[in-house]
Input
Amino acid sequence: MQNPFENAMTQLDKALKIKNFDEGFTARLRVPNRDIRISIPVKMDDGSPKIFEGYRVQYNNALGPYKGGIRFHPQTEINEVKALAFWMTLKCAVVDIPMGGGKGGITVDSKTLSKSELERLSRGWVRALHDVLGSYKDVPAPDINTTPEIMDWMSDEYSKIAGDKSGTSFTGKPVDKGGSEGREMATGLGGFYVFDALRAEVGLPQKCSVVIQGFGNVGSHAARTFSEHGHKIIAVSDSRGAIWNKNGLDLEKLETHKKKTGGLKDFYKIDPQTRNITNEELLSLSCDLLIPAAFENVITEINAEKINAKAILELANGPITPEADKILSQKGIPVVPDILANSGGVTVSYFEWEQNLKHEHWSKKEVFEKLKSRMEDASKKTLEKARESKTTLRMGAFILALERIQEKMH
Ligand code: NAD
Output
């Protein structure tokens, strides 16, 4: 896989060609403040010992405590975590929350572990890192394959070690354990608010046909939200395959099918108008809006030419390589960048932190109103920066973020 951190640095270089920033500041931004690798010993259910490799990258805390998710994935490695932590730094700045950028992970195929092995591994990650975590130091959150239950185990482990029962050191917890209302759907919903604010700007019609890659936390909530607002979801995929119905998928039936079978494939047995297609075919379908919501580096110089969408909303982190970005721009396909489009997740994580610190519990309505207002404001400011410098929305978001971080670092 292309090195995601090199991709992130290429994006940074491009932004620095558009706007001048202080040299000392940009040198600091090319390296994380801390990059920690840990070994996590876990006793497996059969009694055998196994050592897992884990990470926490604390990239930059000029704006506030490090904030960012923890990813459990077999391909997770230090360069991926560094890239994600760098993007988190910019993301928090774009959406104007007082938090810095961090990210964590474990190289593991969590689906092969039993629940108790997964719990021991999650608690092990916290035991190895507890001294650098904390409500005013570093506040982790969920990402790929990390659930509210995992965040609860981690928060509990931290509270036992640190003697801090406030629950303010982890976000994405279950609602009855101090989590915020609406956190699980925040990234998908936030992405919808961004889309709505920029729809006319990127030249899309009022009702769009939408293709979504990835049907996990982010993709499935995005599908539901777009559909509830009258857009037609014509195709979705997960790691095992994709399905397509040019008249629009019945999401309710699809969710039931997914719960029963564990995947999306063979939905045509429930809805004969739906066809199984490959993940590659999904990316080249003709549609108004393509939403990558799975993984980084999925649109590259190899397949960018084949993209047949009128615009792209990046809900995954880093789904488009810099080479592909160039091709899409030449093809006239606008991209709403990840550091703006998927910032709804960290925004509600920040709300959770704030509620925990103040001993408050906000209603879903209140959370969504605050989220909407921040997403709209960040979209507007990104667009202003893009227009000012006659550049793309990605570069507009970079400039907005870099200006805000530079101001705090001086
Ligand atoms: P998840 O584990 O809940 O879901 C990931 C989905 O992607 C699954 O459906 C999986 O089957 C699918 N997938 C994996 N590889 C694929 C492939 N090659 N083709 C098609 N589908 C594939 O993870 P998530 O939390 O939904 O995160 C998805 C993306 O969104 C990641 O890039 C993540 O960093 C980003 N993100 C997540 C959040 C959040 O709040 N969870 C916030 C911001 C950004």
The pocket of nicotinamide-adenine-dinucleotide is lined by residues 142-145, 187, 213-219, 237-239, 279, 293-295, 315-317, 342, 345 (CB under 6 Å).
